[in-house]
Amino acid sequence: MPILGVIFDLGSTLIQRTGLELEKEKCAALAGIAAARWGCRDPAALAARLLEIRLDAWRRSDEDLVEHPAARSIAQAFREAGLPTGGEILLKAEAVFFEPEVRASRLYPGATGALETVRAMGLRVGMISNATSHNLILDITTKLGIREYFDPLVTSAGFGRIKPHPAIFAHVLDAWGIAAGSAVMIGDTLRADIQGAHEAGMRSILVDIEPNPANARFDGPATPTARVTALAEVPDVIRRWAAA
After folding, report:
1. How far apart are CA 242 and CA 76, in angstroms?
2. What pTM value is reported for the model?
3. 199-235: per-residue pLDDT in tens?
4. Cα distance between residue 227 and residue 236, in whole Å
5. How many CA atoms lie within 13 A of 183 on its CB side?
6. Cα(first)–Cα(last) distance of the chain, in Å?
7. Cβ of 119: how many Cβ atoms within 10 Å?
8. Using CA atoms, how far apart are residues 30 and 1, in angstroms rounded to an integer?
9. Distance (Å, rounded) from C-alpha 193 to C-alpha 170?
10. Cα–Cα distances in Å, from 6 out to 9, 196, 204?
11. How many angstroms separate the most distant Cα atoms in the chain?
């Protein structure tokens, strides 16, 4: 079938990978603000508990393929610490929590060029990102100047399910009105991006710029249709498929 649409992941696909150290920094930053603004008496304990809740939420999401949003984790940590959990406070707390991640985000070399080339080929371009905050992905893509490329831009926080659940892929395909065989998923994670795409009937490209350590568990059962080590290679792979 002809290639009509391309779906990109974000983290470790178009932007550089972040890790546990940044997550600890985010928890500490929010705890410091909570002490200054909302009367938190033990910010170190709040930071440690929020990190614990976040890690548990990731584990549960991995098991049930349901997103557990950051706002819910923050609210739980605040309640346990005796802090207010009103709507405006949680919105501000979530923004403070993710600010270090937005600030640290960096595009991989060739990311904008690959997006521009794929779009110039006349293909639909979308995004599916597993993320505990929809606003985080909007903020990162806006800051890096790539938001305009994605229609639709779907996050697990906004949709409710995480990759590799088939419904999140079907959501984009239905929005485009194209068959799964005419779409390509591009991502760094064998289970979420590659296995998920194949189960949905799509082709896949594994972005292996910074090899994902979690992929070792799925190397074999989830074999990508193609593999690249630089984003500049992506348009050439799609052209080869189109020519074939």
Report:
1. 49
2. 0.96
3. 999 999 999 999 888 898 887 778 999 999 999 999 9
4. 12
5. 30
6. 10
7. 15
8. 49
9. 13
10. 10, 14, 9
11. 64
